[in-house]
Design brief:
Nuclear Transport Factor 2, Chain: A; 4-stranded antiparallel sheet; 34% helix; 8 helices; alpha+beta; elongated; 30% strand; 5-stranded antiparallel sheet; binds zinc ion; single chain; 422 residues
Amino acid sequence: MNIPDFNITENSDLAEPYKAFVKQMADWYNGGELPELAGQDLRFTLEMQRQKMQSLGLDMQCNLQNEKSNQINVGGVSFSDRIFTNSIIGGNMNLTRSIGSNQNSIYKNTTDISLSTVIQSLKTDTRPSSSMALCCPHCGAPSTLGELESGCKYCDSHFLMSELYPKVMNFFVTENEDKAKRDEKNKRELKTFIIASSILMIILGMIFDLFSGQSQSTSMNIFSEIFGGLLCGGMIGGMLFVLKKLFEVFALMGKDLRGGGKTASTLFYANKIKKNDPEFSSEYFRDKIMSLFRMAVYSKDATELACCKCKCPEKAKDIIEAQLYNFNINSCEIIDNICDVEVTLYLDCLHYMDGKIKSKSDKFRMRMRKSIKNRTELGFSFAAVSCPSCGASFDARNVKACPYCNNVYIHEEHDWVITDIR
Ligand SMILES: [Zn+2]
Ligand SMILES: [Zn+2]
């Protein structure tokens, strides 16, 4: 499942929230407030990422510019449950990431990217139940929709439905290849190769002449050395350039095809789950996988998170930024309504190691579990759940039982949890 390309359609009512979110994200990565439009889990992930950066003494700034094209691309990609529709909205822009450590810049990179977001909105003509658990967008306290409309218990903020939705659930960054930049680079490289080879050939020609006994260099000789050198050098340089490109193409192909070979098995297993849960989709799952992986990797201690039943692997500990490139479902077992899935994640990550930032293509295997007798709920977050036994709403991100009635809360009965990352 590559992050899809978007067809261009205009006049979407989600273009405005998208633009506003891009601005809020840029503010956030420049030290500002959490994006107001971000859903609860995304806020949580962003906060953990910032805390991780701060604990490492790093400061990341991102500049997003979309001067080149102001186009917002709204794809036909969307998925729904009974209440919500999640649509994927993307746009192209220019991203400059700079990371500093102790006032020194240790990383700076500018690329053309697609920034796609998963925007959740209410289906027309639906109204979620007023007992639906939801976090207060102002103070973050677990609450319910009804309480938020009549005033949050903790901060007394009142919300209209139009202020609660739409919300951005997740975002994905994919790098676009810049053709003009690549052509420029190719021209430069070809020139370097030809000049270097020609100089080498001229020198070799002179040395050869020197040793073959033609000690009396005539101007004719020098001319033929230079001319021969240029001709040979040009040819050899050109050939070397072509060879280098060939290797690059293979390397790039390997990078671009990551995970592409297993699309059939991914669709097969996604369908297997869908048979039990009609609202499951691979787009929804991609969103979930990325959200869970980011939480596990950015958190101080993954085992403290209710959504993670394992440690963060050693090789993922230095990840400070993770973007999903592709994923595969390798296996899926459903026994007594408990679904165990193994996925492979192909990621583009920034690692902080030995005081340096390294950009790497990573591959992780992750096992996840959920009881599929409960259908997918797109609006669900552990940040605000309602207790199945007493009905109270509470934050289940770091607790194992309801704080009001002490009934054990089994996380995998309500949403996907990670059982292993390798
Ligand atoms: Zn509040
Ligand atoms: Zn309870």
